[in-house]
Specification:
Arc Repressor Mutant, subunit A; Rna Polymerase Sigma Factor, Chain: A; 199 residues; 9 helices; mainly alpha
Length: 199
């Protein structure tokens, strides 16, 4: 007994040629066929601040903007994968160039903590303390791994400079200078966040 025939996918290269010739139906079919592949790549490489659907639209925009460059020398899926990966990498690089935490990125609880900080009132509600910890974690994530480790050891775990020296192998003057600079970066990020909330 033979297996039932498997319905063949529409030839993607043919759909690409039709879409290039302004065939809207072929373009919609091409998007539907490529959508699972694009979304798999987007989900694996998406920057935290960018919605996956927005990033997928950017990928499809680039695909259709450069469709005439597809030569047919490789399967269309490979060409699309390269565009999707490069679009994601460009978005990740853009996010790294702008590492601050934006006011719009905060949860309501974290916003309340920022407002209390701006008013110089300590967080007294347990939920606000949790939000303050989460906000501190967000700010720490924007530091280099070495700076984040250093401030975690010194300020969150309460280690002495000598204990940090023993754990890391760094000399004391390096620890002090690096901690000073890392704290200054954190204050700058918090200041930007506070100023962003006043606008």
């Amino acid at each position: 007994m033979s297996a039932p025939p498997v319905e063949a996918k529409p030839a993607l290269a043919a759909l690409a040629r039709q879409a290039l010739a302004q065939d809207e139906s072929a373009a919609r079919t091409l998007v539907a066929e490529l959508y699972p592949l694009v979304m798999k790549i987007v989900r694996a490489h998406r920057p935290r601040r960018l919605d996956e659907e927005d990033l997928a639209q950017m990928v499809f925009g680039r695909i259709f903007a450069h469709l005439e460059q597809y030569s047919g020398g490789v399967p269309l899926e490979h060409w699309v994968s390269r565009i999707a990966v490069n679009t994601c990498l460009n978005a990740l690089r853009a996010e790294q160039r702008r590492p601050e935490v934006r006011h719009a990125d905060l949860t309501e609880e974290e916003e309340a903590v920022v407002e209390k900080l701006a008013a110089s009132r300590p967080a007294d509600d347990p939920a606000e303390r949790v939000a303050a910890r989460d906000l501190a974690q967000r700010l720490l994530e924007r530091l280099s791994p070495a700076d984040r480790l250093l401030l975690t050891l010194l300020d969150l775990e309460g280690c002495s400079v000598d204990e940090v020296r023993q754990r890391t192998g760094w000399n004391q003057s390096l620890i002090k200078v690096r901690a000073f600079r890392a704290r200054r970066k954190l204050r700058g990020q918090l200041h930007e966040l506070l100023e962003g909330g006043k606008r």
